[in-house]
Write a structure and sequence with these properties.
single chain, 367 residues, mainly alpha, ABC transporter involved in vitamin B12 uptake, BtuC, two-stranded antiparallel ribbon, two-stranded antiparallel sheet, 15 helices, globular
Length: 367
């Protein structure tokens, strides 16, 4: 019989430092891992696995941005620019060194983005709030200009770099051979293993001194400096970690589409990732994943609804539905951001906590 949370006692320091201290969360995480890594790849179709791949990549990018905005309180609207740094860095590594392993390019792209993020995070020592947002907007514009005008990097205006799909070891005819990732299920395992590592790293960061320093800087930076926290160093590290996540996200997009392209990392994409954090819930790892899933699925659901209702009720054809769909996407996108800011500032993560708290005490009316 499982102990309830109030009856789970710690006997060692390792138990007290565990990420999940009660048995039920551990079992829940185990079931989720079984579902994600075993059941979904076996039962999911190629179409839905492709959508899940996009959700997984977006979740990693939203998690990185949430570390910067939600946990450290540093506003950024240039997240997509650092994703492009990672994407083009990995593509250049694979282009200039064809024998380099794709894992090296993945880590190299993340490190390049981290360096760029720390460079543009230097103004955070003197400015914050909207002024910092404008500084990160400048980073977006500067990096876009470099990509479009540095021909060695991208080949010129809106240049693209095509890459060879990554390979993975496969046991065949009694020996291991290298097979290219050509199906969505192959990318699914790659993306969700990287996402799992990213979530685990984030959970451990916020159990450490560094994570507590992030939160202290967010809540009251002057008080944090008084108690001995190096504000500038903490902010730079936050920019570096968030940009590393962004760079790895850009590399995963490059691997998934087999191309590094400027149009994949525009200012609109930065706004979308900002919306993922707001709608999912600031300062929440679960909220980053929920927000990424929500924003990724929103255009797909709207497409089904508009085409279905428009065709059956209003008599619209596919051409008319395709013309009005982008406008509806923008309206719903902006409306949902305003809705969550007014009605539920803590986002989907807060709604999920309310739902689980209700069933934790059910059928009793209070805890």
């Amino acid at each position: 019989m499982l102990n309830r949370e109030t009856g789970t006692f710690k006997k060692t320091y390792q138990d007290d430092l565990a990420i999940y201290k009660a048995p039920l969360p551990k079992i829940t995480v185990g079931v989720i891992c079984l579902l994600v890594f075993v059941i979904v790849p076996l039962l999911g179709s190629e179409y839905w696995l492709g959508i899940l791949n996009l959700i997984g990549i977006a979740s990693l990018g939203a998690l990185g941005l949430n570390i910067l905005i939600g946990y450290t309180g540093q506003i950024s609207v240039g997240h997509a620019a650092f994703m492009s740094v990672g994407a083009y860095s990995a593509a250049v590594i694979l282009r200039e060194f064809p024998d380099a392993h794709w894992i090296i390019a993945l880590v190299g792209g993340g490190c390049a983005a981290a360096i760029a993020g720390m460079l543009f995070g230097i103004p955070s020592l003197r400015i914050k709030g909207l002024y910092l947002a404008v500084a990160t907007l400048a980073a977006q514009l500067i990096i876009e200009w470099i990509i479009n005008h540095w021909e060695w990097l991208s080949g010129g205006a809106q240049g693209s770099i095509y890459i060879v799909p990554p390979t993975f070891p496969w046991f065949e005819n009694g020996e291991f051979v290298a097979k290219k990732m050509v199906e969505n299920v192959h990318y699914y395992y790659l993306i969700y293993v990287v996402l799992f590592i990213g979530v685990l790293a984030a959970l451990n960061i916020f159990r450490s001194y560094l994570g507590r320093a992030f939160i202290a800087v967010r809540d009251r930076d002057i008080a944090a400096e008084i108690i001995g926290i190096n504000i500038f160093k903490t902010k730079l590290i936050a920019f570096g970690i968030a940009s590393f996540y962004a760079g790895v996200t850009g590399v995963l997009y490059t691997y998934f589409y087999s191309i590094a392209n400027y149009e994949m990392f525009t200012l609109v994409i930065s706004i979308q990732f900002l919306a993922m954090c707001i709608i999912g819930g600031l300062a929440s790892i679960l909220g980053s994943i929920l927000g990424a899933a929500f924003i990724t699925l929103l255009p797909i659901v709207l497409d089904l609804v508009i085409r279905g209702l428009g065709g059956s009720v209003l008599g619209w054809d596919d051409a008319h539905a395709s013309r009005i769909l982008p406008q509806w996407n923008l309206m719903f996108f902006g409306g949902l951001i305003m809705f969550f800011l007014v009605v539920e500032p803590d986002g989907l993560a807060r709604l999920w906590r309310k739902f689980t708290d209700y069933f934790r005490v059910w059928p009793f009316p209070y805890n």
